[in-house]
Structure prediction request, 221 residues.
Amino acid sequence: MIEKLHSAWKSILKEEISKPYFKELEKSIKDEYKLNTCFPKEENIFAAFNFTSFEDLKVVIIGQDPYHGMGQANGLCFSVNPDIAPPPSLINIFKELNQDLNIPIPNNGDLSRWAKQGVLLLNATLTVRAHEAGSHQKLGWETFTDEVIQTISKEKENVIFLLWGGFAKKKAKLIDAKNHEVLMSGHPSPLSANRGYWFGNKHFSQVNEILVKQGKEKIKW
Prediction:
Protein backbone atom coordinates (compact mmCIF):
# COMPACT_ATOMS: atom_id res chain seq x y z
CA MET A 1 0.00 0.00 0.00
CA ILE A 2 2.63 2.52 1.08
CA GLU A 3 4.48 2.27 -2.25
CA LYS A 4 1.57 4.30 -3.69
CA LEU A 5 2.56 7.29 -1.49
CA HIS A 6 4.70 9.95 -3.20
CA SER A 7 8.37 9.61 -2.23
CA ALA A 8 8.62 13.20 -0.86
CA TRP A 9 5.71 12.65 1.55
CA LYS A 10 7.13 9.21 2.38
CA SER A 11 10.36 10.88 3.44
CA ILE A 12 8.54 13.48 5.57
CA LEU A 13 6.38 10.81 7.24
CA LYS A 14 9.03 8.07 7.40
CA GLU A 15 8.95 7.75 11.20
CA GLU A 16 5.17 7.45 11.24
CA ILE A 17 4.91 4.85 8.50
CA SER A 18 7.54 2.69 10.19
CA LYS A 19 5.53 2.45 13.44
CA PRO A 20 3.91 -0.90 14.36
CA TYR A 21 0.35 0.48 14.14
CA PHE A 22 0.92 1.54 10.53
CA LYS A 23 2.24 -1.90 9.59
CA GLU A 24 -0.94 -3.36 11.14
CA LEU A 25 -3.03 -0.84 9.24
CA GLU A 26 -1.39 -1.82 5.96
CA LYS A 27 -2.14 -5.47 6.61
CA SER A 28 -5.77 -4.75 7.56
CA ILE A 29 -6.35 -2.66 4.45
CA LYS A 30 -4.71 -5.24 2.20
CA ASP A 31 -7.04 -7.90 3.62
CA GLU A 32 -10.08 -5.63 3.29
CA TYR A 33 -9.40 -4.96 -0.40
CA LYS A 34 -8.94 -8.70 -1.00
CA LEU A 35 -12.13 -9.76 0.79
CA ASN A 36 -14.49 -6.84 0.12
CA THR A 37 -15.25 -4.11 -2.37
CA CYS A 38 -13.51 -1.02 -1.01
CA PHE A 39 -13.03 2.57 -2.13
CA PRO A 40 -11.19 4.42 -3.50
CA LYS A 41 -9.25 2.21 -5.91
CA GLU A 42 -6.02 1.05 -4.29
CA GLU A 43 -3.90 3.27 -6.53
CA ASN A 44 -5.88 6.31 -5.32
CA ILE A 45 -5.67 5.74 -1.56
CA PHE A 46 -2.95 8.41 -1.26
CA ALA A 47 -4.22 10.62 -4.10
CA ALA A 48 -4.48 13.67 -1.81
CA PHE A 49 -0.72 13.50 -1.17
CA ASN A 50 0.21 12.62 -4.73
CA PHE A 51 -1.65 15.60 -6.21
CA THR A 52 -0.46 18.11 -3.59
CA SER A 53 3.22 18.23 -2.70
CA PHE A 54 4.32 19.22 0.81
CA GLU A 55 6.36 22.04 -0.67
CA ASP A 56 3.47 23.58 -2.64
CA LEU A 57 0.79 23.04 0.03
CA LYS A 58 -1.17 26.23 0.79
CA VAL A 59 -4.59 25.08 2.01
CA VAL A 60 -5.87 22.00 3.88
CA ILE A 61 -9.51 20.89 3.74
CA ILE A 62 -10.34 18.08 6.16
CA GLY A 63 -13.06 15.53 5.43
CA GLN A 64 -14.09 12.47 7.40
CA ASP A 65 -14.60 9.39 5.22
CA PRO A 66 -14.41 8.58 1.51
CA TYR A 67 -17.74 8.29 -0.30
CA HIS A 68 -18.92 4.68 -0.07
CA GLY A 69 -21.14 4.57 -3.18
CA MET A 70 -20.01 2.69 -6.29
CA GLY A 71 -17.37 4.60 -8.26
CA GLN A 72 -17.65 7.83 -6.27
CA ALA A 73 -14.46 8.14 -4.20
CA ASN A 74 -11.26 9.22 -5.93
CA GLY A 75 -8.99 9.73 -2.92
CA LEU A 76 -9.68 13.46 -2.47
CA CYS A 77 -12.11 14.57 0.22
CA PHE A 78 -15.49 15.83 -1.04
CA SER A 79 -14.40 15.01 -4.62
CA VAL A 80 -15.90 12.46 -7.00
CA ASN A 81 -14.82 11.05 -10.34
CA PRO A 82 -15.80 13.20 -13.34
CA ASP A 83 -18.49 10.79 -14.59
CA ILE A 84 -20.27 10.65 -11.20
CA ALA A 85 -23.05 13.05 -10.17
CA PRO A 86 -21.85 15.34 -7.35
CA PRO A 87 -23.29 14.28 -3.95
CA PRO A 88 -25.37 16.78 -1.91
CA SER A 89 -22.45 18.10 0.18
CA LEU A 90 -20.41 18.83 -2.93
CA ILE A 91 -23.39 20.52 -4.59
CA ASN A 92 -23.62 22.81 -1.54
CA ILE A 93 -19.88 23.53 -1.77
CA PHE A 94 -20.38 24.59 -5.39
CA LYS A 95 -23.43 26.71 -4.45
CA GLU A 96 -21.41 28.57 -1.81
CA LEU A 97 -18.60 29.03 -4.32
CA ASN A 98 -21.12 30.51 -6.74
CA GLN A 99 -22.58 32.86 -4.12
CA ASP A 100 -19.17 33.85 -2.77
CA LEU A 101 -17.14 34.36 -5.95
CA ASN A 102 -19.79 34.19 -8.68
CA ILE A 103 -18.11 31.08 -10.10
CA PRO A 104 -20.46 29.00 -12.28
CA ILE A 105 -21.43 25.59 -10.89
CA PRO A 106 -18.87 23.16 -12.41
CA ASN A 107 -20.09 20.44 -14.75
CA ASN A 108 -18.41 17.70 -12.70
CA GLY A 109 -17.29 17.04 -9.13
CA ASP A 110 -13.63 16.21 -9.67
CA LEU A 111 -11.65 18.53 -7.36
CA SER A 112 -8.20 17.47 -8.56
CA ARG A 113 -7.92 20.94 -10.14
CA TRP A 114 -7.87 22.35 -6.57
CA ALA A 115 -5.39 19.72 -5.38
CA LYS A 116 -2.96 20.60 -8.18
CA GLN A 117 -2.91 24.21 -6.91
CA GLY A 118 -1.82 23.32 -3.38
CA VAL A 119 -5.12 22.38 -1.69
CA LEU A 120 -4.63 19.18 0.32
CA LEU A 121 -8.01 17.42 0.26
CA LEU A 122 -7.47 15.15 3.25
CA ASN A 123 -9.96 12.63 4.59
CA ALA A 124 -9.32 11.52 8.18
CA THR A 125 -9.93 7.93 7.06
CA LEU A 126 -8.51 7.15 3.62
CA THR A 127 -10.51 4.02 2.76
CA VAL A 128 -14.00 2.58 3.23
CA ARG A 129 -15.93 -0.61 2.50
CA ALA A 130 -18.63 -0.27 -0.18
CA HIS A 131 -21.98 0.95 1.20
CA GLU A 132 -20.69 0.90 4.80
CA ALA A 133 -19.94 4.42 5.99
CA GLY A 134 -17.20 4.58 8.61
CA SER A 135 -16.29 0.90 8.16
CA HIS A 136 -12.53 1.59 8.13
CA GLN A 137 -12.50 3.97 11.06
CA LYS A 138 -10.53 2.79 14.11
CA LEU A 139 -8.10 0.77 11.97
CA GLY A 140 -5.35 3.37 12.39
CA TRP A 141 -6.03 5.88 9.63
CA GLU A 142 -6.97 8.65 12.07
CA THR A 143 -3.67 8.23 13.93
CA PHE A 144 -1.84 8.63 10.63
CA THR A 145 -3.82 11.61 9.33
CA ASP A 146 -3.66 13.38 12.72
CA GLU A 147 0.12 13.09 12.45
CA VAL A 148 -0.06 14.52 8.91
CA ILE A 149 -1.95 17.55 10.23
CA GLN A 150 0.51 18.02 13.11
CA THR A 151 3.50 17.66 10.78
CA ILE A 152 2.09 20.34 8.46
CA SER A 153 1.46 22.56 11.49
CA LYS A 154 5.01 22.09 12.82
CA GLU A 155 7.00 22.09 9.59
CA LYS A 156 5.22 24.76 7.55
CA GLU A 157 3.99 28.31 8.13
CA ASN A 158 0.93 30.26 6.98
CA VAL A 159 -1.12 27.28 5.83
CA ILE A 160 -4.89 27.89 5.72
CA PHE A 161 -6.93 25.12 7.35
CA LEU A 162 -10.64 24.85 6.48
CA LEU A 163 -12.54 22.96 9.17
CA TRP A 164 -16.12 22.25 8.10
CA GLY A 165 -18.45 20.65 10.63
CA GLY A 166 -18.04 19.22 14.12
CA PHE A 167 -15.70 16.39 13.15
CA ALA A 168 -13.22 18.64 11.35
CA LYS A 169 -13.37 21.31 14.06
CA LYS A 170 -12.01 18.77 16.57
CA LYS A 171 -8.78 18.78 14.55
CA ALA A 172 -8.16 22.43 15.53
CA LYS A 173 -6.25 21.24 18.61
CA LEU A 174 -3.62 19.72 16.29
CA ILE A 175 -2.91 23.08 14.60
CA ASP A 176 -0.79 25.95 15.91
CA ALA A 177 -3.14 28.87 15.25
CA LYS A 178 -0.31 31.36 15.83
CA ASN A 179 1.50 30.16 12.71
CA HIS A 180 -1.49 29.23 10.57
CA GLU A 181 -4.95 30.49 9.59
CA VAL A 182 -7.90 28.37 10.75
CA LEU A 183 -11.33 29.02 9.22
CA MET A 184 -14.32 27.12 10.62
CA SER A 185 -17.96 26.76 9.62
CA GLY A 186 -20.78 24.24 9.59
CA HIS A 187 -20.60 21.22 7.30
CA PRO A 188 -21.83 21.54 3.70
CA SER A 189 -24.17 18.55 4.14
CA PRO A 190 -27.85 19.43 3.56
CA LEU A 191 -28.72 18.97 7.25
CA SER A 192 -26.17 21.55 8.37
CA ALA A 193 -26.39 23.82 5.32
CA ASN A 194 -30.18 24.11 5.48
CA ARG A 195 -29.95 25.18 9.12
CA GLY A 196 -27.80 28.12 8.11
CA TYR A 197 -24.43 26.79 9.26
CA TRP A 198 -22.77 26.58 5.84
CA PHE A 199 -24.01 29.11 3.31
CA GLY A 200 -22.47 32.55 3.58
CA ASN A 201 -19.20 31.44 5.21
CA LYS A 202 -17.28 33.01 2.29
CA HIS A 203 -14.33 30.71 2.92
CA PHE A 204 -13.27 30.66 -0.73
CA SER A 205 -12.90 34.44 -1.01
CA GLN A 206 -11.30 34.58 2.46
CA VAL A 207 -8.70 32.00 1.43
CA ASN A 208 -7.77 34.04 -1.63
CA GLU A 209 -7.59 37.29 0.37
CA ILE A 210 -5.22 35.61 2.86
CA LEU A 211 -3.09 34.16 0.06
CA VAL A 212 -2.75 37.58 -1.58
CA LYS A 213 -1.63 39.06 1.76
CA GLN A 214 0.93 36.26 2.01
CA GLY A 215 2.22 37.10 -1.47
CA LYS A 216 0.98 33.81 -2.90
CA GLU A 217 -1.07 33.01 -5.97
CA LYS A 218 -4.84 32.76 -5.45
CA ILE A 219 -6.62 29.43 -5.87
CA LYS A 220 -8.59 29.24 -9.11
CA TRP A 221 -11.62 27.64 -7.50
